[in-house]
Fold:
Amino acid sequence: MRVKCSQCGAGIPVPADTGLLQCPFCDTALVVDAGDTLFRVVTPPTINASGAVDHLRRFMAGTQTVADLDAKARIGDPELLYFPFWAFRIATDAGEQVVLEPAAPSSLQGMQKMTLPPGDTRSWTDDIGGGTPVVQPEVPQNTARQWMVSRLGEVQVLRTVLYHLPMFRFSYDYRGRSYRAAVDGVSGQVFPADFPAKAEAPFVAVAALAIGVFSIEGLIVSNLLLKAVVYCVSAVPILLLAWWISRKV
Ligand SMILES: [Zn+2]
Structure:
């Protein structure tokens, strides 16, 4: 099989099953997929390992996760790797935009909705990052394109490239369980696979308690002024309980 370099136009002989290659004439990194020869690009990381840990800790201290996660989680050393995406430049009513779809299977949350982080995008070279593991693309561009169309509807694709994004992969322990997450090495965005979420049951219990207490008081006390005083007094321990639970859960 013979493909044409997208950069210099030279004919390059390739074995039929070769997906990733480098033009022997101009060194441009290419990917052959579904009859197309497309550019293969990368944005080098702008965040180091300790910066990635900071981003993960900020996520852990946020409102989605259990209250003491950032204090109690034991975070393992991050592993940097390059994860592949198909990057589709599309024309929309609001102008051009780039949509990313994962080009390899992943259990990380949010990867389907991620946007291209601003950074210095350049042609892929195998020596980038000196031995950093590279996740191989397994999802064909047509499959990724169908995912995009199922979310956005039929769109006009102006350009498609295979994009390698540096990600820090983490695992951490919390209360005897192990969890995983990844941090985008350019934007710092956190993609959790799973995480210890805030439990809702205690908040529902407090709300039920409040309704119960107020309706009983409403039945017992008939004087309006007295009723207001009783409500105010009983609200104090209920609010304290709610505050205490929000600190603990
Ligand atoms: Zn070339």
Notes: The mean pLDDT is 89. The helical segments are 49-60, 69-72, 141-152, 201-220, 224-248. The chain has two domains: 2-192, 201-248.
